[in-house]
């Protein structure tokens, strides 16, 4: 009998080989169920074609004739890696030319929120709490709680419906420990409707250690201490998400500056240097993980096709409320519900000069397909849209063909 423990015991300890082996984790019955469903379709009903999807992704990224400086994608079906490739440069000629690759780390930006949400679901269950419970008792005692904070729930943060006051820039200030403390003191001063704010998830850098500290056997945790909350957030994520997938040393600190991926505008050419992102430890929670494309694909596989990270019930709840996920127009979901998370960091609101990163994960449960697309460039002309998520949706929707 094949078990997850058998599979883990056979995984190579090397980080790269470990990552490549994620394709073996799927359960055979999942594949059979999806294939059986497809086989039962009438012959005149369009079916999903993964080869078309791959070509669409490539064509849509390169539609404007201005390919990213470096980019990569993976396409998996039922947890098995089926299609993948990497193109271009992690560093251009001005920065000491280095090819981009599937196993090259990149700042995944707000895709980090999806992983934070998984950790929250784990800890709420472990503490016999639900997403409807209030966060106030889990905040540092010394923080002044402003108006409305006593009625602020975990769900409010996870859905970006907190009503808190913050901005999505000046990350070291707004997402640092003092910035979080100030935000809670200001309180809920806006309508509790969806307003995408990084601070909603940065607060989990404190709340995750706080929830963890309440469990038997947890390490000593001082949530009144900035450095300790940083360390304990990252430690919990490593032990309870990445270690479970045999992904060692995943964190919010980049590779050495001399070899790390740098971030460009598509118009930079070979002579303009790129942006370097240093440590995100002090502002993590809502962003900042550095991971390879293959590592991101592995998390997708385990989340979607096993109960190693979350139970089926937890996964269903995350999808129902789009916890740690983006919301899209349902009209775009023409073949069942799609679930994804985007990430983007840029130096300017002007796409012609902004240097930065764009990332996207999407899961298509109806076909068992999921994909990852990352690029170390802003300003790329995508086919028919400026949204990387929308581009992937369009590529998927255009990949249903007559049998």
Could you walk me through the main structural features you see in this protein, from its secondary elements to its overall organization?
The protein is α+β, with helices and mostly antiparallel strands and 403 residues long. It has a single domain, classed as Beta-lactamase, CATH 3.40.710.10. 34% of the residues lie in helices and 14% in strands. The strands form four sheets. Strands 4-3-2-10-9-8 form a six-stranded antiparallel sheet, sandwiched between helices. It has a two-stranded antiparallel sheet with strand order 1-12. The longest helix has 17 residues, at 226-242. The chain is globular, with a radius of gyration of 21 Å. It starts with a helix and ends with a strand. Mean pLDDT is 91; it is low at 1-30.
Please indicate the count of domains.
1
Gyration radius over CA:
21 Å
Largest sheet entry: 6 strands, antiparallel
> Which residues form runs of ≥5 with pLDDT under 50?
1-30
């Amino acid at each position: 009998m094949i078990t997850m423990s058998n599979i883990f015991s056979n995984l190579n300890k090397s980080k790269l080989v470990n990552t490549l082996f994620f394709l073996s984790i799927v359960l055979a019955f999942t594949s059979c169920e999806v294939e059986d469903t497809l086989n039962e379709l009438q012959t005149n009903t369009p079916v999903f074609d993964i080869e078309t999807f791959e070509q669409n992704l490539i064509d849509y990224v390169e539609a404007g004739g201005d390919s990213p400086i470096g980019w990569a994608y993976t396409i998996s079906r039922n947890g098995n890696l089926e299609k993948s490739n990497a193109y271009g440069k992690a560093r251009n000629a001005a920065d000491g030319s280095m090819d981009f690759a599937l196993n090259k780390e990149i700042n995944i930006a707000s895709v980090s929120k999806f992983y934070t949400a998984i950790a929250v679901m784990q800890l709420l269950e472990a503490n016999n709490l639900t997403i409807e419970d209030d966060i106030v008792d889990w905040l540092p005692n010394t923080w002044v709680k402003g108006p409305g904070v006593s009625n602020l729930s975990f769900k409010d943060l996870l859905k970006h419906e907190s009503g808190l006051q913050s901005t999505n820039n000046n990350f070291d200030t707004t997402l640092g420990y003092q910035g979080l403390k100030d935000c809670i003191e200001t309180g809920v001063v806006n309508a509790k409707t969806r307003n995408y704010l990084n601070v909603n998830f940065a607060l989990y850098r404190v709340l995750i250690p706080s929830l963890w500290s309440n469990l038997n056997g947890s390490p000593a945790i001082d949530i009144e201490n900035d450095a300790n909350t940083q360390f304990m957030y990252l430690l919990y994520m490593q032990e309870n998400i990445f270690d479970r997938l045999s992904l060692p040393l995943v964190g919010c600190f980049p590779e050495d500056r001399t070899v790390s991926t740098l971030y460009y505008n598509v118009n930079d050419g070979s002579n303009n240097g790129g942006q370097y992102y240093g440590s995100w430890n002090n502002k993590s929670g809502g962003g900042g993980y550095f991971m390879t494309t293959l590592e991101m694909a592995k998390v997708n596989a385990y989340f979607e096709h096993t109960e190693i990270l979350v139970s089926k019930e937890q996964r269903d709840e995350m999808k129902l409320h789009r916890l740690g996920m983006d919301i899209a127009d349902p009209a775009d979901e023409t073949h069942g519900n799609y679930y994804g998370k985007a990430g983007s960091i840029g130096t300017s609101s002007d796409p012609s000069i902004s240097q930065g990163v764009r990332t996207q994960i999407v899961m298509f449960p109806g076909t068992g397909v999921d994909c990852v697309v990352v690029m170390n460039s802003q300003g790329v002309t995508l086919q028919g849209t400026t949204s990387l998520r929308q581009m992937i949706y369009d590529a998927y929707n255009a990949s249903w063909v007559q049998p």
